[in-house]
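Q: Structure for this?
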Amino acid sequence: MIFRIRKMAKETVKEVGAGVMASRQFQEADLQTHHLVTTVARHSFRVACISFCICHFLYVVFRIRTNWQLLIVCALLHDIGIMGRDIKFENNRICCSQHPKDSMKIAGNLLGGLDDTAADIIGNHMWPMTLTPPHTIEGFIITIADKYSAVTDFLPMNHRESITGTSCV
Ligand SMILES: [Fe+2]
Ligand SMILES: [Fe+2]
């Protein structure tokens, strides 16, 4: 059951996020290490998969509808602004507050603009490390998926599989 949902999540993210995953920015994101053992791209792919699983659960159990397609696309790009972190940001505190804003700019350029929900998903994904909480259900879902991914990225099954064909790990 869990493996079936995991497989479905991966396939759905690859389908819905195909455009983003084929972009130069996302391909390059598989060249920067993230959370010590994974890459920005692989972590983001996992956040998209976990977000989809949460949406699926919310619908199956509570009949709560979410914009899971938008959430997948935004999850793939939520950390794209962290690329070049060692050069761009003076310290971790600045990186923590600034990279969501940089991600919003890059995502906006890639997607031809962000609506309020997309801006909330990407811009507030670091909450509660940043001050402003998300104000949409999709925004809350990514905060949970991002933290869950961060503490489980170290498991070999969660980072050894390349998703772009190029990788530094
Ligand atoms: Fe982040
Ligand atoms: Fe993240």
